[in-house]
Write a structure and sequence with these properties.
Strands 5-4-3-2-1-6 form a six-stranded mixed β-sheet. A five-stranded parallel β-sheet has the order 10-11-12-9-13, sandwiched between helices. Helix 2 runs parallel beside helix 9. It starts with 7 loop residues before the first helix and ends with a helix. With about 700 residues, the protein is α/β, with parallel strands linked by helices. About 50% of the residues lie in helices and about 10% in strands. Strand 7 and strand 8 form a beta hairpin. The N terminus is likely disordered. It has 32 helices and 15 strands.
Length: about 700
């Protein structure tokens, strides 16, 4: 005989309206992140299944959740309006049979307490009180102890003992059609069922609708305006959704519920409070690492960049409304991060839901990041973000995908896109291709057909460049000099120069190598000055180089004294995100990291780069070091040595590396004179020159 699970549609059970309203109350608690007593007060609900015949023989409602140890628990709930629970109550036999299926097929889980049973009824009867008393007594260690407890003098009354006889008779009738139950006594089966049964009296009809009131009160905690009227409307929407979901046996998670309620403004889910606090700390750290403007002493200037802001805001708004993706790229130091963060904050002020972080502050492993979120999956956390028409996650420093963080990037991006949260990835040009590929992969994982948008942040416009020498005395001599035009368009380099307290001459900043020289001399070595009790210039230089070695992944030496702390105070270094798990300080920005690597290659040669297997993220630093080498007295010998060495590196690490000496040459401040000087070795290989 084929066993079929009981359903209220086929057995005259609880009735569709009652079941759906009850399920809506359970879903309201799921939305509010509250425990469900049918599952357990110390458990976190993960999903609610409606008409879950493929999961549980008792399939009206199935609630799944996890305990603090991460173990799965399940509550199978049968909904009946007013069962008699007497020997002649044949309508209840199919439900009892399904309870028996669970306690026979899944007895180990039932006995361990990870699978429980609930009977939800709509009315109040003495029979249900008596059944509840029997269920409480059945928590005994075994069937024998249970029956001894029931029939102990004065332990129960006659009606309760009589109720046990009725229930035993119902179990006997239900077990007749179960093959697995044939080897188990009726008394044992009755005890098993009662030992994990909860009786839930619903208050959803007539004059007492307190369960519905409690559900609306729970919803009020998570809606933005916290009003009773909005909460009631949300409950009505949940009830409407429940009817549709029940017709095809849906598995409803909190994220799914929130997506369907996107017309209502919802707060973050309290069920992932710790995870969202972690995201907030990452946002604060990112904001603290990006200066909103430029400053030197008492002088300051916040760059408005109205055209760039308007263009980027439109694209970010589109991504946020569609749950799509946007890659923001541009040359180093043009102010991509500061601009994107200002636009994000502007959208937040307009009512958008925003989150931001730096990929550099995340571990390379998805598992490690999820452990930092309290063990919650990225999918689960991002699906419980605030609900507003525009939602955005900004990932700064996305070029870190070149440093082994692709996996955590696309896992984070795909989780956001699944949750209809737009993703904005800010990356330098050298990482844009990989970031775009990873973003496309994230979209595929999330099931999105939207191609990533792209926005290139240009250097500062003419009027904005002209404003800098007018505001800062240190830059005054650059005003109107075309040689400094390239520099004034890159606020990141300007910021580093302003920190050195030097008066900048146009002839001293013809290329990036010149800026490196000034910054290293003024900011790292402090113009060779040493205050009492402070680290010496050499100690500060040494500290920066050792951190550069550690960043590159090659052997480094410990740093002693106050040098690292002083470099932190000067904004060159910063404390890592998790000091307890980190090997030490990190560079505050890519610019200082690249300058330190450049200095390392100048002082130690190219062996550290080769030992680290020439990671692509170090290309800028290596090109800068090439540029410094070409500023030396014997340029011809320097050129031959560079091209020979980088051809060797390219043979192992890819052709891209052989191009760096040529790029460095073309970016020199006196590139034309340098090319004339090097013309003979340059044309010695016509193929190579033409190829470049």
């Amino acid at each position: 005989m084929v066993d079929l699970a009981a359903s209220p549609y086929s057995t005259g059970g609880g009735g569709v309206t009652l079941e759906h309203t009850y399920a809506a109350c359970l879903l309201a608690k799921l939305l509010a992140g509250e425990p469900i007593s049918e599952l357990g007060d110390n458990l976190t609900v993960s999903s609610i299944r409606l008409q879950a015949g493929d999961t549980s023989p008792v399939d009206d409602v199935v609630v799944d959740g996890y305990d603090p140890a991460g173990d799965l628990h399940r509550a199978s709930i049968g909904v009946r309006r007013d069962p008699e629970l007497t020997t002649s109550d044949t309508l209840s036999v199919p439900l009892i049979r399904d309870y028996l299926r669970i306690v026979t097929d899944h007895w180990a889980a039932v006995w361990e307490g990870t699978w429980s049973l609930t009977l939800a009824v709509a009315t109040t009867r003495p029979a249900y009180t008596e059944l509840g008393i029997l269920a409480e007594l059945a928590r005994s260690e075994d069937a024998a102890a249970f029956y001894a407890a029931v029939f102990r003098p004065r332990a129960t009354n006659a009606k309760t003992r009589d109720r046990l006889k009725h229930v035993t008779n119902l179990v006997s009738q239900a077990a007749a059609d179960l093959q697995k139950a044939s080897t188990i006594s009726v008394q044992e089966l009755t005890w098993r069922m009662l030992s994990r049964l909860k009786v839930r009296t619903l208050r959803l009809e007539g004059t007492d609708r307190s369960d519905r009131t409690a559900a609306v009160s729970a919803i009020r905690k998570v809606i933005a305006d916290e009003s009773a009227s909005t909460a009631d409307n949300v409950f009505l929407k949940i009830a409407e959704l429940t009817r549709a979901w029940a017709s095809h046996g849906a598995v409803v998670t909190e994220g799914m519920l929130r997506r369907e309620l996107r017309a209502y403004a919802l707060k973050r889910s309290p069920s992932h409070r710790w995870a969202w606090e972690r995201f907030d700390r990452l946002a604060v750290r990112l904001r603290g690492s990006i200066r909103p403007g430029l400053g030197a002493g008492a002088e300051s200037l916040e760059l408005e960049r109205p055209e760039e802001k308007a263009s980027l805001a439109g694209l970010m708004r589109t991504a946020g409304e569609s749950g799509g993706a946007l890659v923001v790229t541009g040359d180093p130091d043009v102010g991509k991060s500061a601009l994107a963060l200002r636009v994000l904050e502007g959208l937040r002020d307009e009512g958008a839901v925003v989150a931001s972080l730096s990929l550099r502050d995340l571990p390379s492993s998805v598992t490690d990041f999820e452990n930092q979120l309290g063990g919650s999956s990225l999918d689960a956390v991002l699906s419980t973000a605030e609900v507003q028409p525009t939602r955005l996650l900004l990932i700064d420093g996305s070029e870190s995908v070149l440093e082994g963080k692709s996996q955590v990037f696309w896992a984070l991006a795909s989780a956001a896109i699944k949750a209809c949260v737009g993703v904005v990835a800010v990356t330098r040009t050298d990482g844009a291709r990989q970031v775009r590929e990873d973003m496309i992969r994230a979209g595929e994982i999330a099931g999105s057909s939207l191609d990533p948008l792209e926005h290139v942040v240009d250097p500062l416009a003419g009027a904005e460049r002209q404003a800098l020498p007018l505001r800062f005395n240190a830059l005054g001599r650059l005003s109107g000099d075309p040689r400094a035009d390239w520099l004034l368009g890159r606020p990141g380099l300007v910021d580093a120069l302003l920190r050195t307290d030097e008066i900048v001459e146009p002839a001293s900043v013809l290329c990036e190598a010149d800026v490196f020289s000034i910054v290293w001399r003024g900011l790292v070595r402090r113009h060779e000055r040493r205050e009492a009790g402070a680290a010496s210039p050499d100690e500060r230089d040494h500290a920066a180089l050792e951190i550069a070695r550690r960043t590159l992944g090659v052997p480094s030496n410990p740093i002693h004294g106050t040098a690292a702390a002083e470099l932190r105070s000067d904004g060159v270094l910063r404390i890592p995100q998790d000091p307890a798990f980190s090997s030490g300080d990190a560079f505050a920005t890519d610019l200082y990291r690249d300058f330190a690597l450049c200095r390392l290659f100048i002082t130690s040669g190219w062996d550290p780069l080769v030992s680290a297997e020439a990671p692509r993220w170090s290309i800028r630093a290596a090109r800068l070091a090439c540029q410094v080498s070409l500023r030396g007295a014997n340029r011809k010998n320097g050129w031959v040595n560079l091209t020979t060495r980088f051809d060797q590196i390219a043979s192992q690490e890819g052709d891209r590396w052989s191009e760096l000496p040529y790029e460095a040459l073309l970016a020199l401040g006196d590139a034309e004179a340098a090319i004339r000087e090097l013309w003979e070795p340059l044309v010695a290989n016509d193929y190579r020159v033409s190829r470049r």
